[in-house]
Write a structure and sequence with these properties.
The chain is of the alpha+beta class. The protein folds into three domains: 4-183, Up-down Bundle (Four Helix Bundle (Hemerythrin (Met), subunit A)), CATH 1.20.120; 207-305, Helix Hairpins; 306-486, Heat Shock Protein 90, CATH 3.30.565.10. The protein contains twelve helices and eight strands.
């Protein structure tokens, strides 16, 4: 998959390569100019020696000093040797025919001047004519070399300016391309964010196929999914709150008729004879009316919204109310076993702890469990801590080896928890249930709420699959001094 980083790296790599090529061209051009300057120095030296030769020649004809004659001949020999050594250079400046005439002039100059005795007038004229041709050719070489050097400098300047301009243009195009690769998708993504500000949770479409934008879009879509789930949970919580208010009102209205039914049944039972066969039916009416009143009181307690208010309550009483709120889903007596330490009390917020037990029991029943065992005892954290295979959550950091805790276990005979699922059971919005469980179920918040409430009490919760069948959830609730005193 393409990525912005790769594109930027490619662009910078291309610019770096272009810079290296530019530096190589500049270096080669400077070396070329250096060579031309060296050749110009050689041509200038050639010209200077011809001028020096003519100077000695003129001095000889004026003063007849043999030293000037020998010096002129020596310079002529050097010029001839230089002409042979640098013939290729000179041919690039003047036509070959001109070099041939120069060579002949040098030969004639050396032959006419290299004689013993005085020179006659005719030979003097020949020497002067040959020297003149040599100096003219040297001057022409000098002019051509200077012109060639000026032309080379101008060409190098134009080439470097053109290449520098190309580098600047390519750099601007690369910068514009990178800006387009980054800025355009960002503008499109910004436009797609506008509906989110207006409360419309539309899925984002990746504005580019680059890896970074694809990952960002996927992250935003996951965020939208979680926001939508949380929004639905808030709406559901508001519905539950409204239902709680409604249930509270209905419960208050039901209390009076249920009380009247119970009173009437008791009065009727008092007026009936002991042997009256209908007396059992009246007693059952009174019992069921009282049971209805208990359900109403429990419903009122559960629907009432209150702050976290822990207090010492009997664990058996909390479990009875939780089982009562399960309604028709409550397991039969022969399928539910309670193994509670006698007179076991816990320091908890009763309403919240009812929610913990309801969530755990409902999870077990939804998973297909038919038998449930609820046990509770006092122990220390060190002697009752879970196995390493268990998934542990809650206020683990607050637990010490000698910390006194109330250990509550709920074990079922269901299919258990798979090894892949076990590490995630307390994660929010993690669920193995498919659709069809209703809006209030299957969203992955039941066990998360359990962990939150237990942590609020300073305790821990663990999930594991024992060696046999089914699943086991264990709660560790810290004991207080009041609990130990009444134990």
């Amino acid at each position: 998959m393409r990525s912005i980083r790769g594109k930027i790296g490619l662009a910078y790599g291309a610019l770096a390569l272009l810079g290296v090529v530019f530096m190589a061209i500049v270096y080669a051009d400077l070396r070329y100019l250096e060579q031309r300057i060296a050749e110009g120095v050689a041509v200038s030296d050639f010209r200077e020696r011809t001028l020096e030769m003519r100077r000695h020649e003129k001095n000889y004809f004026l003063y007849r000093d043999p030293a000037d004659r020998f010096a002129a001949l020596e310079l002529a020999d050097g010029i001839a040797a230089d002409l042979g050594a640098r013939r290729g250079l000179f041919q690039s400046l003047v036509p070959p025919a001109e070099l041939t005439l120069l060579a002949r002039a040098l030969e004639s100059y050396r032959r006419q001047f290299d004689v013993t005795g005085a020179l006659d007038v005719q030979k003097e004229k020949s020497v002067r004519a040959a020297g003149h041709d040599i100096s003219n050719t040297a001057e022409h070489l000098g002019r051509q070399e200077r012109a060639a050097l000026v032309d080379s400098v101008q060409q190098s300047t134009r080439a470097m300016m053109a290449f520098a301009l190309a580098v600047v243009v390519l750099g601007l195009l690369a910068g514009q391309g990178i800006a387009r690769v980054v800025a355009r998708p960002l503008r499109e993504l910004e436009a797609e964010l506008q509906p989110l500000a207006e409360g419309r949770f539309n899925q984002f479409v990746a504005p580019s196929r680059d890896r970074e934008f694809v990952s960002l879009t996927q992250a935003l879509n996951r965020m939208l999914e979680e926001l939508d789930i949380r929004r639905r949970q808030v709406l559901h919580a508001e519905k539950l709150s409204s239902m709680g208010v409604l249930a509270s009102g209905v419960a208050h209205e039901l209390n009076n008729p249920l009380g009247n039914i119970s009173s009437a049944a008791q009065i009727l039972a008092e007026e009936m004879a002991e042997a009256d066969p209908n007396r059992a039916w009246v007693a059952q009416i009174d019992s069921e009316a009282e049971r209805g009143r208990r359900i109403v009181r429990t419903l009122l307690d559960y629907a009432r919204r209150q702050d976290f208010q822990p207090q010492r309550v009997a664990l058996e009483e909390v479990l009875d109310k939780s089982l009562l709120l399960l309604g028709k889903r409550r397991p039969a007596a022969d399928r539910l076993r309670l193994e509670l330490q006698p007179d076991l009390a816990v320091w908890v917020d009763e309403q919240r702890m009812q929610q913990v037990f309801i969530n755990l029991l409902r999870n077990a029943l939804d998973a297909g469990a038919t038998r449930l065992t609820i046990s509770a005892r006092r122990a220390t954290w060190g002697t009752s801590r879970p196995s390493t295979e268990a998934s542990l959550a809650g206020a683990v950091a607050e637990m010490r080896e000698d910390r006194r805790v109330t250990v509550i276990q709920i074990q079922d005979d269901g299919p258990g928890i798979s090894a892949e699922t076990l590490p995630h059971v307390f994660d929010p919005f993690y669920t193995t249930r498919g659709k069809g469980h209703g809006e209030a179920h299957g969203v992955g918040l039941g066990l998360f709420v359990v962990e939150e409430i237990v942590s609020e009490h300073g305790g821990c919760v663990a999930a594991e699959t024992p060696a046999g069948a089914g699943a086991r959830f264990t709660l560790w609730l810290p004991c207080r001094i009041q609990d130990e005193t009444h134990a």
